[in-house]
Structure formats: C-alpha cells, structure tokens
Hints:
Chain A is of the alpha/beta class. In chain A, 46% of the residues lie in helices and 14% in strands. In chain A, helix 7 (136-144) links the parallel strand 3 (126-130) and strand 4.
Amino acid sequence: MTSPERNPVPTLADVARLARVxxxxxxxxxxxxxxxxxxxxxxxxxxxxxxxxxxxxxARALAAKQTxxxxxxxxxxxxxxxxxxxxxxxxxxxxxxxTLLIASSAxxxxxxxxxxxxxxxxxxxxxxxxGYERDQxxxxxxQRQSVxxxxxxxxxxxxxxxxxxxxxxxxxxxLARLVIRQGHRKIACISAPTxxxxxxxxxxxxxxxxxxxxxxxxxxxxxxxxPYGIENGEAAFxxxxxxxxxxTVVMCGNDVLAMGALRAAHAMGLRVPDDVxxxxxxxxxxxxxxxxxxxxxxxxxxEMGRRAxxxxxxxxxxxxxxxxxxxxxxxxxxRSLGPADG
Amino acid sequence: MTSPERNPVPTLADVARLARVxxxxxxxxxxxxxxxxxxxxxxxxxxxxxxxxxxxxxARALAAKQTxxxxxxxxxxxxxxxxxxxxxxxxxxxxxxxTLLIASSAxxxxxxxxxxxxxxxxxxxxxxxxGYERDQxxxxxxQRQSVxxxxxxxxxxxxxxxxxxxxxxxxxxxLARLVIRQGHRKIACISAPTxxxxxxxxxxxxxxxxxxxxxxxxxxxxxxxxPYGIENGEAAFxxxxxxxxxxTVVMCGNDVLAMGALRAAHAMGLRVPDDVxxxxxxxxxxxxxxxxxxxxxxxxxxEMGRRAxxxxxxxxxxxxxxxxxxxxxxxxxxRSLGPADG
DNA sequence: TGGTGGTTTGTAAGCGCTTACATTTGGAGA
DNA sequence: TCTCCAAATGTAAGCGCTTACAAACCACCA
Lengths: 342, 342
C-alpha cells in the first residue's frame, strides 16, 4: 500500500511497541474494545493517534477472511437512475457498517465480467448486479466463490436468482394499455439496445403484449433501438417519423430517450401531444420538468437501492433464506400523452 | 474474503499443486509471463482455469505493497456534474490499468474524513478529492501516508496543493459582468451552503466582485443559501421574491438550483426573462432542455475527469513534478437571461 | 566430454493483521 | 493471608501472495 519506502507507514507492531503491549492487544483494542481493560486501551489509543496509525485493510481482510465490503457493477453512473439507486444503496450499507465498491461496465458484457472478477478479488463479500442477463459461467463463478449475488432493476418470478426489482414487461404493458385506450393504433417505440439487456427487452415486449391483447398485430410496432442519450433519442424520433409516417405515439424505453423525442418533435414543428404523443420510463427528475411534462412509469429507484442493501445483508447472514422482492411501479400521467385524434 | 468455509476458494498453492510447479512459478505466470517457459505457462494457465482461480487482491497488495488503485471521494453521485466527471475519470484510469474506488461524503466533512481513511486503509495509491476545503490534518495525514492527492473542481493559483479545475470566482464574476452589462442592478443569488465549500463560496464572491467593479455595493447582493435540489431552489426563489422584491435577476450557484428557480417563477406567474432573469452554473444537460433554456457557465466536467486521471498517474510516478492545471469555462448565453428592463 | 553462462524454477522469508491457545494477573471469597 | 477462577494479556501460527536468492537446467562451445 502507498508508495515504497519514504516515511514508513506505521503498523500494528509500531503501535504495540509504543504502547508496550502485544500486537494482539492492539488488535483487540481496535476490534473488540471491551475485551481490553480501560487503562490499557487508553494507552493503546494514545499510541494510535500519536503515530497516526491506520489499519491495513488488505492484511486485515487476509487474516480475518472478511471485508465488510459489498460490490456493485452498474452500466454507467451517468444514468441518473443508477446514480440515485446506488446512492441510496450506499447510504443503507453504510448504516450497517459495510462499504461499497462501485464499478461500471458501460453496458458491455466483457467489461462487466472483468469488473466482477476485480470486485471479487478485492474481497467483496457480496455483489449487486443490474439485470439478469449475463453468461451463465459468471453466476457459476460467483457461486464457486461463495459470493451472494443480488440482481436489481429486474424481477422475473420465473427465475430463482435472488432479485429486487419490478417486472419491466408488465409495467410497460400497463402503460401501453393506457396508451391504447387513448385510441392510439399507430405505435412506435424507441428502445435501448435489447441485446443483453433484459430490461430494455422486457419493456418492448410489454408494448407488444398490450397490442396483442387489444387485437392489434404486435409486429406492427415500429421499433428503433439506440444507445442511451438525448441526441440518440432525437435521431431515433426522426427516423421513426420518416419510416413510419402516421405514428401517433412514440413510447420510449427510458426518460432520456423520451426527452430526445420531445426535443426532436419540437424542432420538427410537431406539437406534443396534439400531433404526436410521447411517453418515457423511469420518472427521473427531468420527466416532470419537460415541456410538456412527460407521461412515464414511475420506478422507486431509491427504495430499490435501500432495500437491495437490506437484502444483501440478509443474504450475507443466511445465503439460502432470501426471497426476491417485486416492487411495483405506477404510471405518471402527464401532458405528453393525449388521445390519438389530437 | 467471501464466506467462511463452504467450498474452499482455490489459492495460488492449489494451482501450483495441480500444475506441479512452485507457487513462485504460478505467481510469475500471472505477473510476468515471459519469465516462464511456454510449456510450463500453458500447464499453469490450464490449472488456473480448471480451478477457476482468482488471485486474492488483499494478499497481493500486502506482499507487493501496491494496489494499482485510486480512490475518489465525491459529495454525491446524484449530482450529475460529479457523475459525469467521475465516469470519465474512471474510464481514463481503466485505460492505464488502474482501478477506481469511489466513496461519497454527502457534503459532510466528517464523513469525508472517514471515507478518506477507508480508502487509504484499502490501499488507494492516490486520491482524488473535490475542492480544497478540509481540515489541515487530513492533508498531513495523507502526506504522512505518502498518498498523492489531487484536488478537482477547484483551482486556486495561490495554493500549492496540486489541483485541476477552474477558478469558481473568476468564472462566476465573468457571468455576473455580463448580467450587469444587461442593466441588472437588483441582483440576487441562490447558493449552495458556502460553509466548507470553497466552490460555492467562490461563486458568490465572483458576483460580489463584479458588483464592486461596477460601482455597486457588494453587500446589496440578496443571498439565500440552500442545499442541493430542485425543490430547494424553488423554495429559495420564493424567499428571495418575498424578501427582496424588485429583484431583476437571480443568479444560482448551480443549474439544479436554477431549475428550481425557473419552476418557481413559472408557478408564480413570472415570465423568464421578461419579469425576472435566471442564471445557472455547470451546464448540465438539463440547462439546455429547460424552458426557457438556461444561461449558465459551461464547465468541461468530462475533460476535467479525464485529465485528473492523467495527472494522478503522473503524480504516482513522480509525486513532486506536478503542475496544477487550470481549465477554462465559458458562458452559455441562452434565453433565461435578458435585459433588466424586460 | 566437460565447462560456461544464461534461463527457468524452487525455496523460503516476509507483508500486517487476527485469533486459538497459553500464560499471567488481580480480586473475591474463605 | 491464601486459593481459585475469570478476565486480561501474550505467544505464535497462519491468511495468500511476491520476490530475493539459491538451485537446477540446458544449450553451446572448446
């Protein structure tokens, strides 16, 4: 740790020497203070502060075989949704004396694998991962390493992998039903790439499901996939309007894409919702501030983060006895969605 | 690491045994492969994958005395500004084979100290901190531990602490001059808490500086301090309008507060910029999307993050030879700022 | 064939900490 | 004052890895 020689960083042994006790006593002072008599403890603590001693985490982990550390791999911090959820996750972990290690995968499977290995190597006692979709061997690896793993932002009752989240398909289907009830028949969708992203895929499927239910052909959905980003949403919107003229509503896989759609519509001189309706997903702050305000699916990101922490801590205690939890989402009906006939 | 017994996690020794070589050879295979003859290496690698071996980071750090890890303590991930900068920071670090450990302090000094200790204990070879302002002993502690530390999001030519950032005061002063040139004389400011936040304080001082230059009394600035958050910005705006009637421009310490101001103005039936102008700081995505679009100070967050990584790596090589770098900001003049007379 | 010197591999000593187990200590009770 | 036992402290064996240093190996040349 820290650079080579220079001023040698004080160690447990230094403290012990200065306090005239054994290293075991110093260790106990730090980890289970009430096993040490007051006078000794005072002397040790004095030495600790005199030397400015900080325990070496690596050594401690090595000896104690546990790190009180939890790891999380998220696609990107730039997505407010994750930033918010993870912040809550971290706060709750902190409350339980755990530390969070964060890594980001930029939505790339290979990078995610690498980060998972890195976190495990660093001794993460447990892991939070986003969505189910990843190579099976990764799950096996984690199992072999006995690292309890929780999936978040997704929930599929059919899987046994512990998870906390909501059913992306169901949530989006609900919104789509509402859209259809408003009379929309020419529906388009701007989605995040669905390859290796079960959340994005679920949302698209949700729309198709609602269409089928309504007697429409699911294949009629005009679909454009594009990476995260407002500009991408804009471009996608233009593509849709060019390739699927007559579209009356554009349902977006997330709020950021929807913001792009809104902007593009505005730039193209289309009125929302009179000429075309737009919906989002996530309900980030932006959604309410948009002009017109965005109809979207509200996801309790903070709650999810907070409860994910609780679940993970529970898994650490008893890896078997965990129940996945399904959160509910609700629709925020705002001005960007109107009836089909304008 | 990982849970107690259960299925024992494979160690270097296990690999060595399976490959019929010494642990030293396995270690070399992993760290300096070309010191090992091909045939042996193949055998070892085979064993590694057969066992699903992952090196134990703690042990490695302990033995090798370096971690290739850099730590960062930011106020909160929920602030898009930091999320963006840190993302770039991380990407650049990754390019150099370094790993990033992130912690957040929720703008609380005590928490920051704690997190710094935690990161150092975890063996962070270097640290990124936001702004200069913190207890002197923390700097001393870091020096004693020989942990090179870089300050970001601030730059004060007068300090010798290595930093990368911009001069908050100068940048805001520039915007304030523009505001004043537009004829504004009744100026108000909504700022983040200035206690232990040199960035916020610098921005306020910038406004005062420009006022003095223009022959106005710096004390006439109507100032409200409030924590980060749109709602807080809204409340602050109402306070200002109540306590400093006649205010023609509200300059905000950051874009999020400005968004709140914009909303409050809208809710109060005030037209922006006809009845009152609003400005922000940071130029986050929201600024451009706001209605009306927000006049603000553009800060190159991504570039800052990227270059911060470069600097830190340089400091790791030669802790002495680092030059602080001052980034330049520029004003984005958008519709939310208009002349004083409406 | 033996000697030479560079490669490849092995040996073993830690890195800083925790913890089982052994030893010492200090009172309470007799 | 002397026992005796629980509480406090010390001793020392690792935890999994890296790396000096030593040993073994392998051409290659004389």
